[in-house]
Amino acid sequence: MKVKRFSASNNYDAMAQIRTELGSEAIILHQKKVKPKGILGFFKKSHIEIVAAVEDVSVNKNTPAETRRIADTYSVKSRTNKTNKANTGMPTLNQIEELKSMLAVVVEKANRDSLPDIIRNRDNPSITNLYNSLLNQDVEEELIEKLLSKFDTASKEIVNAEQEGDIINENLGRLLLDFVSIDNHKTAPKIIFFVGPTGVGKTTTIAKLSAKYSLEGGKSVGLISADTYRIAAVDQLKTYSDILNIPLEIIYNPSEIGESLERLKQNDVIIVDTAGRNHKNARQLAELKKLLDEVSEKEVYLTLSCTSSKNDHKEIINAYDFIENYKIVLTKIDEAATYGSIINIASYTQKQLSYITAGQSVPDDIEIVTIEKIISLLTRGIKYE
Ligand SMILES: Nc1nc2c(ncn2[C@@H]2O[C@H](COP(=O)(O)OP(=O)(O)O)[C@@H](O)[C@H]2O)c(=O)[nH]1
Ligand SMILES: [Mg+2]
């Protein structure tokens, strides 16, 4: 094989040199535009460098179609056509379009190859679309695969985008219920403990819930603050109890909770605010356990922020597994970049999702969790074609 480097001011001249020296069967191995170096180079024009090769035996023999096309592009005939952009060494619009569609095919293949078998084998654009969207929502991959392996699209023919959206929502709703359990709020708890890491929004959520119970539900509410580690924490709850005109008890020791509950027993609901616990601190968690063990009939809400990472959620959930039965309150969904944590948490814990909060405003920014709400968050941003 004969290999040679050519240099010219434009593609046309370079191709002409290659044809003259190597013949029309020459193939291009490498091509680059070279910019002159240094300050003085600024005033100089760039040039084209091409490395071309030809098999020794085939010089000037029959021209293969592809090489002929390259040669033809720069033929004398096309050079005389002043409107043809190839003359200037620039690709034509058609060539750019051709390249774009070739690239799209390559990208699509790469994306397809990266799909797990279970999704690729279904070979269904709706499922692939949903898989990618859920992955972007940070849903655990394993959970997506479990969900979508049972996805049913065969029964209905998709005719338009709106219908595709409906079918996806319907399927997703049905499948999610296998992995996510949701509090139906049918039983009214008497004593509720809010537990969870520091700063996730326990006290704010208690204020929202107290306001809902008392202002909308017509129930009497009593509050207990067991968060006496920070003066500001008690003040925060005191402010809400004053505004809502509901009684507040403060306890400094787990053993005091019995007396406080006794004093508040005429209320329909009693909500206990606990100190934010560092889930990595065993002593703090042991103290919390002591407090919870003081009360046998209770509902516990583990409060988790949707802005924490998957790993944080797993660690926190592990640390709180000493609590046998609890429900989940998800906070700060308004600040979350993705919504996968909602179903990840439900699947890690197998506990019921109860409330979701979406802002600092008391009492408005709280909702009970519904499957429709979860689907609307998870499918946000999906484009149906
Ligand atoms: N964006 C947003 N902020 C919240 C939400 N819930 C609570 N916060 C804020 O988070 C911060 C900590 O809340 P706080 O109730 O004191 O958390 P705690 O330490 O768990 O009791 C406060 O600034 C709250 O206003 C929410 O749903 N969305
Ligand atoms: Mg607090």
Helix content range: 40-55%
From the N-terminal CA to the C-terminal CA, the straight-line distance is 50 Å
Most strands sheet = 9 strands, mixed
CATH superfamily of the largest domain: P-loop containing nucleotide triphosphate hydrolases
Radius of gyration: 34 Å
- Put simply, the count of helices is 16
Order of helices and strands: EHEHEHHHHHHHEEHEHEHEHEHEHEEH
Q: How many strand units?
A: 12
Q: Any idea of the CATH topology of the largest domain?
A: Rossmann fold
Average the pLDDT over all residues and give the rounded result. Answer: 84
Overall domain count: 3
CATH class of the largest domain: Alpha Beta
Which small-molecule species are bound to the chains here?
A: guanosine-5'-diphosphate, magnesium ion
What spatial form do the alpha-carbon principal axes imply? elongated
Which parts are unreliable, with pLDDT below 50 for 5 consecutive residues or more?
58-86
In terms of DSSP E residues, the strand content is 15-25%
Structural class: alpha/beta
From the 3D coordinates, which CATH architecture of the largest domain would you assign? 3-Layer(aba) Sandwich
